[in-house]
Write a structure and sequence with these properties.
single chain; 219 residues; alpha/beta; Rossmann fold; 22% strand; globular
């Protein structure tokens, strides 16, 4: 969902180039060692971070890891940045860019985990290639993830979930966890789950939340 333009958010992004890479040139590789204090830490990426509740909470809970919020909308990037600054999250960077260019921004075998939370379902067949679990996106994720690196996916859209399971299975991925009602799993799983803004909204309406964890294996 496209957010309304918020001038303060755009201005905030412009004022903090040390925290936000705003539409960088895909032809120029990003030196993440200059963006994080310690690049030896595990790197986790959320593709499509929205307002950022999930990724900022994750970064706050895991100071021993580095995180990148990849978000296309500048207004959303500004909202994430505001929380980052308020919570002083030095282990979080914001990349305002198109996910289609993800392999240009991250080196091969550099990420440990990739999160896809409530991605646009693009329900029309003619838009299949835009779905973030389409085979060309999976190919890109495989390149940037370390061997054994994991994709964690959540959605409230049953159609997108079924499509994603089939797409990942056809790509030869291994499933470590699959749920068609995440919020009613055992207490340990529910306790570990960090809700996104959309997830809280949909779950409050009684909608089931679908989730899976999958990896490409170790070749």
């Amino acid at each position: 969902m496209r957010l309304r333009n918020k001038p303060w958010a755009v201005k905030l992004v412009q004022e903090h180039p040390e925290s936000v890479l705003d539409r960088p040139d895909p032809e120029k590789q990003i030196d993440w060692s200059q963006r994080f204090a310690d690049c030896s830490r595990p790197l986790e990426i959320e593709v499509g971070s929205g307002k950022g509740h999930f990724i900022t909470t994750l970064a706050e809970q895991n100071p021993d890891k580095n995180f990148v919020a990849l978000e296309l909308q500048v207004t959303a990037a500004g909202m994430i940045l505001r929380t980052k600054l308020e919570k002083k999250l030095d282990n979080l960077q914001i990349l305002c860019a198109d996910a289609a260019d993800i392999t240009a921004f991250f080196a091969a075998n550099s990420a440990d985990t990739l999160y896809l939370n409530f991605s646009d379902p693009w329900p029309k067949t003619k838009h299949e290639k835009r779905r973030l679990t389409y085979k060309t996106f999976l190919e890109k994720y495989k390149k940037i993830l370390k061997p054994g690196g994991q994709i964690e996916f959540k959605t409230d859209n049953s159609g997108l979930f079924s499509y994603s399971v089939a797409s990942m299975n056809n790509y030869g991925m291994h499933f470590d966890f699959v749920s068609v009602d995440l919020h009613h799993e055992n207490e340990e799983i529910v306790a570990k789950n960090i809700e996104t803004e959309y997830e809280h909204k949909f779950a409050a309406k009684g909608n089931p939340i679908y989730a899976l964890h999958a990896d490409f294996g170790v070749e």
